[in-house]
């Protein structure tokens, strides 16, 4: 059944001064049927501290959860196994992330490594912007294979007092990682060596005070799209895959002008066919929709759809692209939208996953129903 999906959710379960409450359980797994919109809880555990970002293997069998805990000098990354036959979660192991406020991770395309971005606050400890882990035979994490640090500041004295690596994304072609650093307004490209070492290839500066946060990749491998948290814009760039060089193509506001002063952008996702972008706006509490010109990479604003809650921190599309989930952190609700594949527009289905402080949602096909 192509309509059967697994939904993995990380929710906040420890207070932090920059979040508005922690009402979640931690890590949860759900079944979702795209045909009927039925949602069923399969498993959950409260043994993971503040899993604010997750990566999941394509078959849904392994989960890698970042723990973002205020005042820890290092976050952690925890590996779990999910057994679909028994709907059970099993702890494998965890590793320190080599930096504080561990914000994002990504499994490499060849399935051999985990890339981890640390936002970083204050000073002290290893203070690495990005670290690389291998996988053991049981799916657990090895000790860190490599890491890199960033330095610098930006014009926003409150938010850009230091480097803040917010995400790390491997290109479509593979073996090149793009790090979005909110603190220094840069996208930094690294070659991923077979042993995990990161070799800097290039960097590109975005507008001062832009605050790049999350990245989406066009399926053709030619275009990169970035959600800028601090100035509420979305940018498209041309990528030279071998060198990692990026060149700005277009910039569009992510919210209406009247909402810009009180908005902070968060996530960005792209439709499977590469025709539409979806970005989340915290403050305006909307999902911005953009059409992508397939030849030039330029953007056209389509719509701003209410997110069905408050503070849409994270978005996820089902593998088919028929539905979009919005994790509305301060509404304790993951809203489920139907997506028109021709226009790109979203319609709230009225269905949702009710869960305390959802922070991250990832979706795979359900292997039991495939």
Give a verbal description of the structure.
It is a single chain. This protein is an all-beta fold and 370 residues long. The protein is built from no helices and 28 strands. It has a 4-stranded antiparallel β-sheet with strand order 3-2-1-28, with no helix packed on it. It starts with a strand and ends in a 5-residue tail after the last strand.
Topology of this structure?
Layout: E1 4-11, E2 27-33, E3 39-45, E4 51-56, E5 62-67, E6 76-83, E7 88-96, E8 102-107, E9 113-118, E10 130-135, E11 141-148, E12 165-170, E13 176-181, E14 186-192, E15 198-205, E16 212-217, E17 223-228, E18 233-240, E19 245-253, E20 264-270, E21 276-282, E22 286-292, E23 299-306, E24 312-317, E25 323-328, E26 333-339, E27 346-354, E28 358-365
Antiparallel strand pairs: 1-2, 1-28, 2-3, 4-5, 5-6, 6-7, 8-9, 9-10, 10-11, 12-13, 13-14, 14-15, 16-17, 17-18, 18-19, 20-21, 21-22, 22-23, 24-25, 25-26, 26-27
Organism: Mesorhizobium plurifarium
Family: Belongs to the cycloisomerase 2 family.
GO molecular function: 6-phosphogluconolactonase activity
């Amino acid at each position: 059944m192509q309509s059967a999906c697994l939904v993995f959710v990380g929710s906040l379960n420890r207070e932090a001064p920059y979040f508005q409450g922690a009402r979640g359980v931690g890590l949860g797994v759900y079944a979702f049927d795209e045909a009927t919109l039925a949602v069923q809880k399969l498993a959950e555990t409260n043994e993971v501290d503040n899993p604010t970002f997750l990566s999941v293997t394509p078959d849904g069998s392994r989960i890698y959860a970042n723990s973002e805990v205020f005042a820890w000098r290092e976050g952690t990354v925890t590996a779990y196994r999910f057994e679909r036959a028994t709907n059970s979660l099993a702890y494998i192991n965890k590793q320190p992330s080599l930096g504080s406020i561990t914000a994002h991770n990504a499994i490499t395309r060849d399935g051999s490594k985990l890339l981890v971005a640390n936002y970083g606050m204050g000073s002290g400890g290893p203070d690495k912007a990005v670290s690389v882990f291998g996988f053991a035979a049981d799916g657990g994490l090895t000790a860190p294979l490599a890491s890199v640090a960033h330095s610098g500041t930006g014009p926003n004295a409150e938010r850009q007092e230091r480097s803040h690596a917010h995400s790390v994304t491997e290109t479509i072609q593979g073996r090149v990682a793009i790090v979005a650093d909110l603190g220094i307004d840069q996208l930094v490209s690294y070659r991923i060596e077979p042993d995990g070492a990161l070799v800097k290839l290039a960097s590109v500066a975005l507008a001062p005070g832009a605050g790049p946060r999350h990245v989406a990749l066009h399926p053709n491998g030619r275009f990169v799209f970035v959600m800028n948290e601090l100035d509420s814009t979305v940018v498209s760039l041309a990528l030279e895959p071998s060198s990692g060089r990026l060149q700005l193509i277009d910039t569009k506001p992510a919210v209406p002008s009247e909402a810009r002063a009180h908005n902070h952008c968060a996530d960005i996702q792209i439709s499977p066919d590469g025709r539409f972008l979806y970005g989340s706006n915290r403050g305006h509490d909307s999902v911005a929709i953009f059409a992508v010109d397939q030849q030039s990479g330029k953007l056209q604003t389509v719509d701003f759809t209410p997110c069905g809650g408050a503070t849409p921190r994270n978005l996820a599309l089902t593998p088919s692209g028929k539905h979009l989930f919005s994790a509305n952190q301060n509404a304790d609700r993951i809203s489920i939208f139907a997506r028109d594949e021709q226009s790109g527009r979203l319609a709230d289905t009225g269905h949702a996953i009710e869960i305390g402080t959802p922070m991250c949602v990832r979706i795979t096909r359900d292997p039991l129903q495939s």
